[in-house]
Amino acid sequence: MNYTAINDRDVFIVECVRTPIGRGYSSGMLHDIQPVDLLAMTLNELMIRCPKVDRSLVEDVICGVVSPVKEQGANIPRFALLKAGFPQTVPGVQLNRMCGSGQQAIHFASQAIASGSIDVAIGCGVEMMSVVAMGSDWQLDNPNFNKGFNFKILHQGVSSEMIAERYKLTRDELDRFSGRSHELADKAQKNGYFKSQIFPIKLEKTGKTVTQDEGIRVPVDYTKMAKLKTPFKENGLITAANASQISDGASAVLLLSGRKVKELGLKPRARIVTCVSVGSDPEYMLLGPIPATEKALQKSGLPLEAISVFEINEAFASVVLAWQKQLKIDMSRVNPNGGAIAHGHPLGATGAILMTKLVNELERSNKRYGLQTMCIGFGQATATIIENCSYTDSQPIPLLKSNL
What we know:
InterPro entries: Thiolase, Thiolase-like, Thiolase_C, Thiolase_CS, Thiolase_N. Helix 2 (76-83) links the parallel strand 3 and strand 4. By secondary structure, the chain is an alpha+beta fold. The chain has eleven helices and twelve strands. It has one domain (11-133, 150-385): Peroxisomal Thiolase, Chain A, domain 1 (3-Layer(aba) Sandwich), CATH 3.40.47. The strands form two sheets. Strands 1, 2, 3, 4, 5, 8, 9, 10, 11 and 12 form a ten-stranded mixed beta sheet that branches. The chain has a two-stranded antiparallel ribbon with strand order 6-7.
């Protein structure tokens, strides 16, 4: 690493890790682990992987949790970091930007570092949907809560059907994209692409050690997929097969300032180029990744063609295909190792999981820039562009200035 090219206030990812993702049901492989313990394991593993960064140097742990109640309430990152052996001086805070929570945790950590307020932070996320059900913190069935809005409060599944109709998507297109997700995730798993980013978890109840995502299903049975019911619209297009899975999981990302990277003699893995969040139409609520992608590119100064790998959350197949059609992105660059339709979507953790996948894929394929974006309920989205620090090219392009 050429330290002369590192600006003190640049923000770098120096390590990232995730759990294997379990199915979010009582039969799921991670169900018997408490959320605080799963997060503690993840934070501990993150620091074990970067021994040059003492735990006492961490100045904040920011954690995404979408259902921050019961076992996932009470500021779970503070309890988890103490369980993980961090000193009492390290603070923690949880946030909820719905499906973008884990990515937003990384954003807040990056922005704090870029501002000069701190030098070392962790952005992470956890969600055990088998333990705390999705929607546990909602009041959307309360008529008093629903009064006074100038838009309809819709289920995300209804919005995904509306998006499919607007973009003239077919059931076969949606199902084929979903099958692609499983097939690519299975290929990545068999080829060992996930091995370095996932840490093994030993299950106390069975004594087994889990090392792989539980939701990937191959061979894909397209005939069976075509027969599934459409719960959000009669004779609609959205089914359980072309939507993300209910899941359990956690992930964590260690971020440092350029100054601290140089001081500790570290080799960073990726540089945060820019990170944005946007608001969008609350009825067509899942189209936010389109303006978020455009805004991230505009702020970075990069053209669309400069992005070699896109990680867009597969909340529903219609979200990804609408985004792809609108921006005319080559699908070979999109979710090259599958996505949430295959491996699952543990809500608060997915943002950090996708970032971990993106960092590893840029390194594996020797690509320079990657962009991650996620749709968010009721009309929001997050997007991040990162640069692979180990990228090599005979004619390298000069580093662009960070624009957080």
